[in-house]
Amino acid sequence: MIMKAKETTLTRIASHRGGTLEFGDSTPAGFAVTARMPLEEVEFDLHPTLDGKIVVHHDPTLNRTTDKVGAIVQMTWQDVRAATIDFSRGEHPLLLEELCEIYTDSPVQFRCEIKPGENGGAYCDFVPKVIAGLDACGRLMTTNFSSFLMETLDEIASHTDRPRLWLLSPPVLRQLGSNAVIELATAHSVPEIGVHIDDASAALMNKVTAAGLDFGCWAAHSASQIDKALNLGVKVFTTDRPSLAISRREKQSSEGRPA
Questions:
Q1: Class of domain 12-253
Q2: Is the pLDDT of residue 58 over 50?
């Protein structure tokens, strides 16, 4: 009898904010380089402007990563565009449609995090605008959505059947516990959870996957954190250092170890 070789699933790499530690936070250059990298996903975050535009930016304000200050939702697109991103090539924030244009011919899929506002709450009526914007650019069917807010994940599900990922902060994971996390994800039909890489373990992953959920990690930036994600065999991990992640995965593959 001929035995079939066991199939191995490639651990997916997601370039976090277009590779923040390599190219700056959510920069056009970082997204453009990521589009040509041998990885699977690019992660980005979205906020609305005062005049209804959708901006690719991590924080709800410009304060921390640009030379301007102010909450994006309280600023016009023209004012947001005037900001220069720190540690960039003098670059400015992007609109969602501009990001889509960068990835027109790229096989890299989107991992879209719909962010809360400065007060921690969801933006009113923002989810359907994001979905419509992605659809208009022909990118909806290659987009996975993520959020720390279950409220936002529920709203996403009411507008599209695209995959959703529940991001768990360390305090929430500790406060709820793994059993409650699995129960909540199942009750809300969320198929995947993501934890901070330092909270990830084989025991937690096995419990989550045994419940029929996918398991991933975020914030795998150092070589040791990246190796941990690869050795665990998580579905996907986000990293600020995509070039390092690619090289570590290639090294493991060349050594005959599953990545």
A1: alpha beta
A2: yes
